[in-house]
Amino acid sequence: MKTAICLLAALVAVLPVGAHFEVTPFPKVVQPGVPLAALASSDPGTMVVYKIHVPPAAGRLTVITSGGSGQLRVYLREGVQPTENGEDSDYRSLVSGTRHQIAVPNPAAGVWYVGLHAVGNYSGVQLRAITPLAKGALTPPRFSPPPGIYPAPVECRITNRVKPASLRFTTGGEDPDATSPLAPAGISITADTTLKARVYSPAGAEGPLAEATYRIRPPGDIIDLAGTRTISHLASAQGGRHLFRVRVADGERLGIHTEGGKGSSMISVFRGSVPPAGKPPKGSPVVRDATRVTIPSTLAGDYYIALDATTTFAGRTLSAYVAGDGADLMPWAATLAPYVSVEEFSVTSCEVEEGLIGAGERRLIRYNTEVRNLGARDMVMPPPEGNPLFEYHECHGHYHFRGFASSRLLDLEGNVLRTGNKVSFCLLDGMRWRFDAPTRRLYNCEVQGIQSGWADIYDSGLPGQWIEIGDLPAGTYQLELTVNPDGILAETNYDNNVVAIPVTVPAE
Question: Which of 140, 269, 296, 450 has the greatest number of CB atoms lying within 10 Å of its CB?
């Protein structure tokens, strides 16, 4: 266990070794400085996991629980979800009651997980995370507007919070150094550009690297949504317009929706030509909505989609999909969020016992998996007992469907460099992504499946959510994720079962 600074008197005990807990598939994010209140559990022995993103140059990570009544334990772990009994955690607090505090000096930047383990019942508990910057720390520069895909040229500003300091930048893909140009007041971006920047103190100390990629589409350019029919990282200044096209057959149910990011936008859909700008007159065949449009029965041909910026927005994802008569599974690229992690696995860990990885130190790319059911019907799984398509996981205490997802790491030319395990999943309703889907969860690890309009989600900190990369050199690669890779589960569309996104591997 790492050394923790416990600011409350703590009772430190040796934790018992037990079975692997039923994990939190998609932990709620704790924003530094913003408390989560009214946390409660009426099920003794269970643990709920939360996620914290620690910024670069943080001088300390402090996790605090307070208020309410009952008794709980707190576990903290870098990069990976802690296990229920705390055996696999970096820091822990075992005091009685609900008042806990763990402080980690100079924490590594990236993902951390907090587990609240109910010793008995607890209620009314508040959870906070604090990540103040180290004294004199050089922070990453910021880019404004945010990176993304824009429908017109943008004027970018690079700023930093450290004064006095030199802000150096590049536009050609190379990392900036102390001899790189100083960042001007504004940078006109008229074509696809990757900006890199870092801060240098007057004494020559080098700050962390910041990177932002801008893709500029010519005004009026139409993006074809064939294939996955999903595009992420959309952005625009107010009044800007992205245009898309999707080809469908007769009698299909076409859905278009947007999600994510900040700012406001409007969807307009028209068959045969680009929707006219502005609000359509009453009785117009143009279909319009802020976040989602459904065409119940299409006519064969091209449907054109306009995404208009009613305010400045960034970080938006647009998806156009055809809902067939059955289930249709698709991995959601915007959720992958890969990162590199170096971890130690013991011979008694569940991951080693289940054959997911060998014991010892391992270098991994971890990623989230979100699988959406786009189809008009639920993906209903058969009973797992006695079914060879399922395997019972002693460590988890329930059945998993064999080989539900697989992953590979590719170079930029598509050559396979590393292959992940085919990961088995307990298929369940993790998150309702479509607003008109049923509001109540129906499927779980006892009765498995995914409702239409719901998604099964597995967080990056869970077992198997990785590709082992070993001594792979630093560089830019592609992370590819495939669901239902062997086509065992019946779907109306198998063409959208694979996604690939770029991933950067830093130097060791």
Answer: 450
